[in-house]
Amino acid sequence: MCVLLVELSFLETLEGKSNLHRTMDEKDMTKLLEKAHNAIVLSLGDKVLRQVSKEKTTTRLWMKLEKFYMTKPLVKLNFLS
Fold it and tell me: Rounded to the nearest 10 degrees, what angle do helices 58-69 and 26-43 cross at?
């Protein structure tokens, strides 16, 4: 999943809206976050999707997936520390 996000240039979206490029306007940031969220959701199987379907933001979705399936985080989310 992480490789897909890097390939699509969405990895930075995992840190949330506040950490995206300062030069982006609000509309572009929202569009980028939606695309990243959709890329993750489209990559999930039905069983996994049922477990995370209530998460509406890319960051929360990624955190929930890490909680269920990772022994250690792949991406350090700065705003949570």
Answer: 30
Question: Phi-psi category of 57—alpha, beta or left, where left has phi over 0 and alpha has psi -120 to 50?
Answer: beta
32 near 58, Cβ under 8 Å?
no
| CA 78 – CA 36 distance, rounded (Å) | 18
Give per-residue pLDDT as tens, 16-67.
Answer: 777 677 667 888 888 888 999 999 999 999 999 999 999 998 889 988 988 8
Cα–Cα distance between 54 and 18 in angstroms, integer?
A: 22
SS3 61: helix
